[in-house]
Amino acid sequence: MSSLGCSRHGPSPSGSSKEWHILLVKTRDQSYPNHLSNTAHNLSVGIPALAKNESGQRRATYERAYQVAQRDAPLRCAPFSLAVYSEKMMRITLLRHGKPAFELKGIVQTKDLGAIAKAYNLSGIAGAPPRKTAAAIQGEKWIVCSHLARSIESAKALGFSEVHVKDPLFCETAIPHFGSGSVPLPVGVWIVVLRVLWLFGFSKNGESLISARKRARQAAERLVELAEEHQNILLVGHGFINHFIAKELKKSGWLGPSKPGKVFWEYGVYELNRRHSGLGNCLPDPTGGSDQPPVNGQ
């Protein structure tokens, strides 16, 4: 079987963000007529009918595409079938929130770590995003945030007036800490020590590493579901959970950096091009199987 293809790139006239492709599939051992390339080109005018009715009356949309194609370039020379599929590029951007207004500084005792973690999670952000980041992120996106203020405020600072999803599923991995004790250390040192202990299984008053990775898998699955529906997703998330989500996306075949970014406002873009052929099988030859050559050059 051989084929001659044509495609319509970019959004379809119905507003779909998919790319619709039409293939003329040769079903018998015959030569292509000279005008077939024009026919393939003109078949693209049938795309709106297909796009509008993707999940509805499938055969009717095929027949409509044939009617339009035959009107512009009749298929009377050989039995061909029309195969239709769609391709859509899905994109998920994982961005770390802006710098929190609550500053992690000073000498603190072990017993104070819980209160510091709570104050940090209640904090919004200080300052604006870099202009380069704000410009690169702009465009039509489905905005996803955690339920924490620093995530939501960062999305607003980027210029997005509406946050479509606010879900604790995307919040940062809760750092473990001791509930008592008077050992004094700089708060920055405490964070490093506790995160290292966390990597080795310590999870008191926090979230275990196993639990965090499981939640990251669930978060990645949720983002993929959103991308299937809305194509372009921006998660304004957090450092560790974004890192784990990125790993899950790459395991599933998404293309992007191994790490989405460690510093505030840094981001990584992950893409997947998925082909859908759910519109049905090839339609039988509309010419009724005629082997007659075109009449008067048509």
Keywords:
2 domains, seven-stranded mixed beta sheet, single chain, 9 strands, globular, Rossmann fold, alpha/beta, about 300 residues, disordered N terminus, disordered C terminus, two-stranded antiparallel sheet, about 35% helix
Tell me what the structure shows.
Strand 5, helix 6 and strand 6 form a beta-alpha-beta unit. 34% of the residues lie in helices and 20% in strands. The chain contains nine helices and nine strands. It folds into two domains: 108 residues; 167 residues, Phosphoglycerate mutase-like (Rossmann fold). The protein is of the alpha/beta class and 298 residues long. Helix 8 crosses helix 9. The N terminus and C terminus are likely disordered. Strands 1, 2, 3, 5, 6, 8 and 9 form a seven-stranded mixed beta sheet that branches. Strands 4-7 form a two-stranded antiparallel ribbon.
- Spatial separation of the terminal alpha carbons: 24 Å
CATH topology of the largest domain: Rossmann fold
Content of β-strand = 15-25%
User: If helices are DSSP runs of H or I spanning 4 or more residues, what is the number of helices?
Assistant: 9
